[in-house]
Structure formats: structure tokens, C-alpha cells
Write a structure and sequence with these properties.
Blueprint: H1 8-21, E1 31-35, E2 41-43, E3 59-61, E4 67-68, H2 77-86, E5 92-96, H3 99-106, H4 117-123, E6 127-129, H5 137-148, E7 153-156, E8 160-165, H6 168-191, H7 199-206, E9 214-215, H8 224-242, E10 252-258, E11 261-264, E12 280-283, E13 286-288, H9 297-306, E14 312-316, H10 319-326, H11 337-343, E15 347-349, H12 358-364, E16 371-374, E17 379-383, H13 386-406, H14 417-426
Parallel strand pairs: 6-7, 9-13, 15-16
Antiparallel strand pairs: 1-2, 1-5, 2-3, 3-4, 5-8, 7-8, 10-11, 10-14, 11-12, 12-13, 14-17, 16-17
The protein binds zinc ion.
Length: 430
């Protein structure tokens, strides 16, 4: 879906539904606004159930002071107004009280977004605004002060978070990525000390334009296999998002069509609603004209080139596996038979593995050792089909969560080598 084609009323409702559905607000908490080109502000109402919000419920605060709509505007209207007053570039605001960000808010801490590239890229340094009474001009002034200093994401003391962007989608992405960053940090502290990316590493992943030659794609030549794979990939990407395995902007999925062609997710694109025509075809190392593949495209290509049996590759950042990733720890799969049988031994690769020295990546990831944790860069899994790669991603994330959940109750006891040898025999694992 292209949000830029939506009226602010519809965009506000869809975004609020998404925030509510993914448990990032309660029925009563949170408010969103958009400032349009006439300086009219469209804002969510106060006192309306966030779970059943419709476009008719959205309020419009005209630039000349008139108020239009069926309700009253959000009680936090003063701070939305104050932020727009100090930052001409900000045209949309997301405010809510999601759990992990509230944990930071009540601990009086800000997360270090250098934890992973997307968190840093979308939020930069996060500010902390002192407490103010909800709905007051005082609170508006304190938050606006931080935005005036140049911050786009501000944690509010004992309250929640506020993110601003040039569009509502941009503000939402900052908000969603920051909540994910906080969730990962909280989980990571169970394991040890998280590591952060250096300037050099941030730069390495920041190259958004992948230099790659183009070819003229002709959709009338599309084979049944290609159509099938385009639809399969979209379904699994959407499922991955709904299952919390991906966020709006993290993760790359690909599937091999034949010996010289594969399909990969575009960059950048909302993973919540990828359409078959959005996917990028790569043929003989060239990309489909007019589209931009995920930045991990060369890593995907290297894996297909090195291993003819690999049919799908996924790079994703599910919360629990990410906790291992930022602590530079691998996930133990000697936990339950399902984990070992599907995921086998999980390798640990340096942050640079998908960019430099692709030999290390292709030597490590094979159908026999299909999963790797990449330091501060999520996980990578391969499979002979999209379903099989997705299954491994899910099993890996579940294993990571179980190991983390076992920590407070005494830690997990790994299955013995004898059990593993028995599983290898019973399931004919090579
Ligand atoms: Zn609030």
C-alpha cells in the first residue's frame, strides 16, 4: 500500500489500527497527527476506543483556529501544536505508551540506537524530556524544546515516547524501530553486555544505493514458477511481519527461480504490505530496471551461487534472536529435538559478513548448517524452499526465546551429545 495516496483521515486510522493491533498502545492511550500543506492539523480524537477508530472520528484543527469533527481533539493536542511550531520539517507525530519504551521512560533512560543500523538510521540520538502534566502547555514546551534542539525521537519521563517525521509513515517507522530497539536491549541484558556499532560499521551498512547493473524486465515473459514464487514470498513476508519476525524496514527475503535468476525484497519498502510486483528480479547479477533490491542482495546472490540446493534466503531481526545478535552470542539449539533437527548448530558471524568477505558467509551457511547469528545484524537462514527457510527462522526465534525465558528460572540444561547423536541417526541428518 502506498500511504502517500491516502487522505490524512485514512492514514491516521490505518496507522492507529496498526499500532493497536501490534500492542503498542492501549485503547485509551496514544495519539497521532498530520499537518497538511494548508497548516491544518488532522489529529486523533480523545475518548474514542482506539480499537474501533474510523475516518469520521478524526478531528481537523484548521490553521485559522476552527475545529471540525464529531469529537474533541486528543488531550495532547498542545504538545503536537508546540512541536509543529518549532520544527517546520516535521509534518507528522506519533505518541504512545508501548511497553518497552515505557520501561525506559520509567527507568529514566534512553536507548542507545547504535545497537543495530536501522535503529540508528531512523532515530539517531534519542532525547529525554522531563515530566509534565499530561495535556498541559508546560509538557508541550518541554517536549518541543527537545525537538527544537534537533531530536526527532523523545522519551517522556514517566510517560511514553514521541516521534516526529516528514510523513506519518516515517514517524511510525521511528516509533516502531525504537520500541523494537528497547525490547532487544531489555532481552539482551539477560544475556550479558550488548555491543554497539562503530561509525565505520554504521557507514558500511548505510550505503543505500547498491551499485548494480540493470536489465529491461519484461513481465509478459513471466513463468508460472516466477509467479508462484512472487506470491509465496509476499505471503511469507506478511506472515513474518504479523508474527513479529520482521519490522517495517528490517529484513530481506529472496527465492531462487532457476540457475541464473532470483527474486528479492526491494529497498526500502514497508514489509507490512509487499505486493508481487514490488519484488525485484535479479538475473545474471543484474537488477530489474527501475527497482532497488535489498542491500543484502550480494550476500543472497553469493549463497545461491555457492550452493545449488539453496532455494530461499532470509535475513531478519526477530527480537529474541536479536538479543543474541547484539551480545555476539550464538543460540544454543541443544534445547529440544525440534530446534536441533530444523536449525542444527547455529553459527556466529561478524557484522561485516554480508558485506565483506562473502566466502566466510557461503562457507558457513549451507543446507546442513542453515542458520547463523550475525553480530548486531540479525540472523540469516537458508532453505531449499521459502517455507523451509521461514520454518527455520521461526524455530530459531522460538529457541532463542525459550533459552532467554529459562534464564530467570535457573537457565536451560542442554541435551547431551548422546541425545544429539541419536537425533542425527533417527532423522538421517548428514
Ligand atoms: Zn500519553
Amino acid at each position: 500500500m502506498r500511504y502517500e495516496y491516502l487522505h490524512p483521515r485514512d492514514e491516521l486510522v490505518l496507522t492507529m489500527q496498526r499500532i493497536y493491533r501490534y500492542k503498542m498502545t492501549t485503547t485509551s492511550g496514544g495519539n497521532l497527527s498530520i499537518l497538511d500543506e494548508n497548516a491544518d492539523m488532522w489529529i486523533t480524537p480523545t475518548g474514542v476506543d482506539k480499537g474501533t477508530l474510523t475516518p469520521n472520528d478524526i478531528m481537523c484543527m484548521r490553521a485559522d483556529g476552527r475545529m471540525e469533527g464529531l469529537h474533541r481533539p486528543s488531550s495532547e493536542y498542545p504538545f503536537h501544536k508546540a512541536i509543529y511550531g518549532v520544527r517546520r520539517d516535521i509534518r507528522a507525530i506519533v505518541h504512545a505508551h508501548p511497553m518497552a519504551l515505557v520501561a525506559f521512560s520509567i527507568a529514566h533512560q534512553v536507548p542507545d540506537t547504535r545497537l543495530f543500523h536501522q535503529a540508528w538510521r531512523s532515530n539517531g540520538t534519542v532525547a529525554f524530556a522531563p515530566y509534565g502534566t499530561p495535556g498541559s502547555e508546560d509538557l508541550g514546551g518541554k517536549i518541543a524544546q527537545k525537538f527544537a534542539e534537533g531530536f526527532d525521537s523523545v522519551i517522556l519521563e514517566n510517560h511514553g515516547v514521541c516521534c516526529g517525521g516528514r510523513t506519518l509513515q516515517e514517524a511510525f517507522q521511528k516509533f516502531e524501530t525504537l520500541e523494537m530497539c528497547c525490547k532487544v536491549l531489555i532481552k539482551a541484558h539477560t544475556l550479558g553486555e550488548p555491543h554497539y556499532l562503530t561509525d565505520q560499521q554504521l557507514q558500511l551498512q548505510g550505503k543505500s544505493d547498491v551499485p548494480i547493473d540493470c536489465f529491461e524486465y519484461d513481465p509478459t515473459m513471466m513463468s508460472i514458477r516466477e509467479k508462484d514464487l512472487r506470491n509465496q514470498l509476499c505471503r511469507f513476508i506478511e506472515r513474518g511481519y504479523r508474527q513479529g519476525l520482521l519490522t517495517t524496514t528490517t529484513g530481506s527475503f529472496s527465492a531462487r527461480i532457476d540457475g541464473e535468476k532470483f527474486l528479492i525484497t526491494p529497498y526500502p519498502l514497508d514489509r507490512h504490505s509487499v505486493l508481487p510486483e514490488d519484488l525485484v528480479m535479479i538475473r545474471k547479477g543484474k537488477k530489474e530496471f527501475g527497482k532497488h533490491p535489498s542491500r543484502a542482495v550480494f550476500a543472497h546472490k553469493a549463497l545461491y551461487d555457492a550452493h545449488p540446493g539453496i532455494g530461499a534466503v532470509i535475513n531478519a531481526s526477530p527480537i529474541n534472536a536479536m538479543a543474541f545478535s547484539v551480545c555476539h552470542r550464538t543460540v544454543d539449539t541443544y534445547t529440544i529435538p525440534e530446534s536441533y533437527v530444523f536449525v542444527r548448530e547455529v553459527s556466529l558471524l561478524p557484522f561485516e559478513a554480508p558485506f565483506n568477505g562473502l566466502e566466510n558467509l557461503t562457507r558457513t551457511l549451507t543446507l546442513q548448517s542453515p542458520a547463523a547469528v550475525l553480530c548486531n545484524n540479525g540472523v540469516m537462514v537458508v532453505g531449499d524452499t521459502v517455507l523451509s527457510a521461514f520454518d527455520k527462522l521461526e524455530v530459531l526465534e522460538h529457541s532463542a526465546e525459550a533459552v532467554l525465558d529459562a534464564h530467570p528460572i535457573g537457565g536451560h540444561v542442554a541435551m547431551s551429545q548422546e541425545i544429539i547423536d541419536d537425533l542425527i541417526r533417527a532423522f538421517h541428518l548428514a
